[in-house]
Amino acid sequence: MGSRLTPQQSDFASAVREFAQRECGSPVQRDALTQGGREPHNPKIYAMLADLGWLGVCLPEEYGGEGGGLADACVFLEEISYGLVPAGGFVTTVITAKVYERFGTEEQRRAVLLGAARGRVLAVAMSEPGAGSDVAALRCRAEQQPDGSWLIEGQKTWISNAHVAESMLLVARTGGDRHEGLTMFHVPMNTPGVEVRGIETMGGREVNDVFLTGVRLPANAVVGEVGSGWRQLMAGLNHERLFLAANMLGLARRAFDDAVAYVRGREQFGRPVGSFQALRHRVADLATEIECARLLVREVASDCDARPDRLFPREASMAKLKATETAKRVALECMQMMGGYGYATEYGMERHLRAAVVSTVYGGTSEIQRDIIGKSYGL
């Protein structure tokens, strides 16, 4: 397939675009659905996406999904981002679901994957106050009790969508230091001792602190193998970075198209401002960067689907780095092209910029991605 979409994927992308235009195509619709941009996730819209079968796009058919691949999920992510569909819970859900698909028990897969396809949101809890980019420094502890159950104590932070999630995939320390002794657990959000506190951000209510005090989990809450959490986590990060890249590719396209529409219609000195060479060349550079990001994201997704037995850490990091840095640059440059109107909330460009800026931080900062890429060359 390479970087081209198949006919089926093209039809799928068109259907998602039509849905976005119908349900949230105007600023008035989007403001109503997101409480003026404060809530990136709307349960009603998310339920509609579930009814259409789109939330299970890359999940196995036996667990309620459509049986598609990572490339299909990237098409969906790109288009809902471009269409500004308030389905913020999907990114963490599909990232988490793929971990259960690969490492979970049959009981876990049946419960979690079926729920994800039907519209239940999942979260993943890795970061802590003292363990962000350095995930191996996490201190949240899980101790097994004589009856086989687990007692969890600790705090997680910057946990996306924990406030709308049904469950979270928790990474906790069960022994050892650094990369040794990390284990994954399935934690329903209504478990006694789990407390979620929202963190206000530039993008509204997206992330949370999660406190775990005396949380007791059954023995079968372990996802995968005890002590193998780091290996499992690294396998899942490829999916995370690829999905985040697709999401930001859609945002970059949307910011670019909004700005081009503006400079075509805005007149100064008797002609459209887009006809001036300074802006025309800027448009050309941004269009080229977006196309480079698009080709890279689609190629990496295609490679991952073609070789599911392999990990692509360097390529996934390249896709995440390129797409997120491109989205940030595009939104900032487009704001500059629109002048004062780019800064006004009426036109939406400032929202694009706020969404793009944080993308170079979450899911592994751009600096971490560069380090991974550099190390892959033996440096």
Describe this structure in words.
The protein is of the alpha+beta class and 379 residues long. It folds into three domains: 7-120, Butyryl-Coa Dehydrogenase, subunit A, domain 1 (Orthogonal Bundle); 123-227, Butyryl-CoA Dehydrogenase, subunit A, domain 2 (Beta Barrel); 233-375, Up-down Bundle (Butyryl-CoA Dehydrogenase, subunit A, domain 3). The protein is 51% helix and 15% strand. The protein is built from twelve helices and ten strands. It has helices spanning 7-24, 27-34, 43-51, 70-82, 89-103, 106-117, 229-265, 277-306, 313-338, 340-343, 349-359, 366-375; strands at residues 122-125, 141-144, 150-156, 167-173, 182-188, 194-201, 204-217, 222-223, 267-268, 271-272. A four-stranded mixed sheet has the order 1-4-5-8. Strands 2-3-7-6 form a four-stranded antiparallel sheet, with no helix packed on it. It has a two-stranded antiparallel sheet with strand order 9-10. The radius of gyration is 21 Å and the shape is globular.
Short description:
With 379 residues, the protein is an alpha+beta fold. Helix content is 51%, strand content 15%.
Could you name the key traits of this structure?
379 residues, alpha+beta, Butyryl-Coa Dehydrogenase, subunit A, domain 1, Butyryl-CoA Dehydrogenase, subunit A, domain 2, Butyryl-CoA Dehydrogenase, subunit A, domain 3, four-stranded antiparallel beta sheet, 12 helices, globular
